[in-house]
């Protein structure tokens, strides 16, 4: 019933294969999908990839993820298309990896070109973020502004625009639902602490330290994301 997939945009392919099985009636309303561990083995993908696919289907209304019970095919009407970005820009893990590579270089260059005004702008954002750890949307906005403010230090409008653009790939029903599984006051507090390390390295005019601090921050973000899947799967399997 399930077919192993090629390593390209895997979570989309997993979602599409399950979607077809639902539409053809092979997976019937009310039936329970195999545990995520088993699905990962059948598709020959990672468990985070399976979870990404399942969240796509959950937002579409095709399945219900019941914590402590499992994943069930929904009998509710399907939601309109448009859950995934049209540009097929990749999943959140791919996006975080891309950001890690690009924004590490941006932080490095910002440390070479840092100005008092640039640091003052970052300090205001960090203060606002600290006051908003319990308010997800505000913390998210502060997070975005922090990363674009670093690019702004360089004085290259294309870099600032690109940094905001790649960040904004998460502004969709799919990514919003996905974030609800792993973002909260605790993770925003960790991000804030990592932001401060980046800020200090840039303020010190230390390109190598700034690059490493940004790399570490976005690597840890990937880790938090992946670990959130493992926690949910442990409860469900």
From TrEMBL:
Residues 8-76 form the HTH gntR-type domain. CDD domains: WHTH_GntR. Keywords: DNA-binding, Plasmid, Transcription, Transcription regulation. The keyword Ion transport does not apply. Signal peptide: none annotated. It comes from the Bacteria. It holds the Pfam family FCD. GO terms for molecular function: DNA binding; DNA-binding transcription factor activity. This is Uxu operon transcriptional regulator. It comes from Neorhizobium galegae bv. orientalis str. HAMBI 540. The lineage of its organism: Bacteria, Pseudomonadati, Pseudomonadota, Alphaproteobacteria, Hyphomicrobiales.
């Amino acid at each position: 019933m399930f077919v192993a997939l090629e390593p390209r945009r895997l979570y989309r392919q997993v979602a599409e294969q399950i979607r077809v099985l639902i539409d053809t009636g092979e997976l019937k309303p009310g039936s329970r999908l195999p545990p995520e561990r088993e699905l990962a083995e059948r598709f020959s993908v990672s468990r985070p990839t399976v979870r990404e696919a399942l969240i796509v289907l959950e937002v579409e209304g095709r399945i219900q993820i019941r914590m402590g019970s499992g994943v069930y095919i929904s009998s509710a009407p399907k939601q309109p298309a448009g859950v995934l970005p049209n540009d097929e820009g990749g999943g959140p893990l791919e996006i975080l990896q891309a950001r890690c590579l690009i924004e590490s270089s941006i932080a490095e260059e910002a440390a070479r070109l840092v100005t008092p005004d640039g640091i003052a702008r970052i300090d205001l954002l960090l203060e606002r973020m600290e006051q908003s750890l319990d308010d997800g949307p505000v913390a998210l906005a502060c997070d975005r502004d922090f990363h674009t403010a670093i690019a702004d230090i360089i004085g290259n409008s294309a870099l600032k625009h690109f940094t905001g653009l790649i960040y904004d790939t998460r502004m969709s029903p799919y990514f919003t639902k996905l974030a609800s599984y792993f973002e909260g006051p605790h993770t925003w507090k960790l991000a804030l602490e990592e932001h401060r390390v980046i800020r200090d390295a840039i303020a010190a005019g230390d390109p190598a330290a700034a690059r490493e601090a940004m790399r570490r921050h976005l690597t840890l973000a990937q880790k938090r994301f992946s670990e959130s899947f493992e926690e949910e799967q442990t409860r469900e399997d």
